[in-house]
Amino acid sequence: MKVDVLTLFPEMFTGVFESSILGKANEKGIVSLNAINFRDFSLSKHHTVDDTPYGGGGGMVLKPEPIFAAVEHVMTSSVNPPRVILMCPQGETFTQKKAEELSKEEHIIFICGHYEGYDERIREHLVTDELSVGDYVLTGGEIPAMTVIDAVVRLLPGVLGNQMSAVTDSFSTGLLEYPHYTRPAEFRGWKVPDMLLSGHHANIEVWRRQQALKRTFTRRPDLLDKLQLTDQDKKYLRELRNNKQ
């Protein structure tokens, strides 16, 4: 996979792209991560990338020319049309399902504004997706883009040491993840649940499923409405509801 980020602050991505899971994936050649300053594609003498809005009003608006030129430049290396993602508060809310969808792409281009809005022609004629990471406003699209990139790249084969980690993470199954424990078996009087020490793997899987259901029921009950639950799941949830009353 190739990931290109168009930004006015490429230095923000240096540490992110060179560290931890993303850094290792880049080193292994599983993904190519690049941050590109779209100011370099401005045609004006002073490399201007924004201007005042037509019709008046406060703030500045990012001009279409440098962003179109930057996207078209990085697209030249693509065999198939890439996904061009605009990070903005008005976009589709980013989810694990979207991360899984994007992880199948060969080339993704992220456009990150900063401070300003975008000329509408960028939305209408250049991007394939608009994504938001939540109902709040940040000073730019860089940090949201980092979030999306991390969520997508970790799903690529060979990135995680244990690929099952990606499969069982919260939201990958539609449920919040079950609790985890490690040594020591007792710490300051708090003990690891006996079930996890039993060595009975089938029963442990049942326990983990129930714990995931319980955690989701308690913290994010809205997620349960979207799931296809087994009869055993439904029975356990009825018990939780009855105990809550």
UniProtKB/TrEMBL annotation:
S-adenosyl-L-methionine binds at G113, V133, G134, D135, Y136, V137, L138. Keywords: Cytoplasm, Methyltransferase, S-adenosyl-L-methionine, Transferase, tRNA processing. Its main location: cytoplasm. Coiled coil: none annotated. InterPro entries: Alpha/beta_knot_MTases, tRNA_m1G_MeTrfase_C_sf, tRNA_m1G_MeTrfase_TrmD, tRNA_m1G_MTases_N, tRNA_MeTrfase_TRMD/TRM10. The keyword Transferase applies. SUPFAM superfamilies: alpha/beta knot (SSF75217). Its EC number is 2.1.1.228. One of its GO terms (molecular function) is tRNA (guanine(37)-N1)-methyltransferase activity. The keyword Methyltransferase applies. GO terms for cellular component: cytosol. It catalyses: guanosine(37) in tRNA + S-adenosyl-L-methionine = N(1)-methylguanosine(37) in tRNA + S-adenosyl-L-homocysteine + H(+). It is found in: Cytoplasm. Residues 1-225 form the tRNA methyltransferase TRMD/TRM10-type domain. GO terms for biological process: tRNA N1-guanine methylation. Specifically methylates guanosine-37 in various tRNAs. Belongs to the RNA methyltransferase TrmD family. NCBIfam families: PRK00026.1 (NF000648), trmD (TIGR00088). Homodimer. This is tRNA (guanine-N(1)-)-methyltransferase.
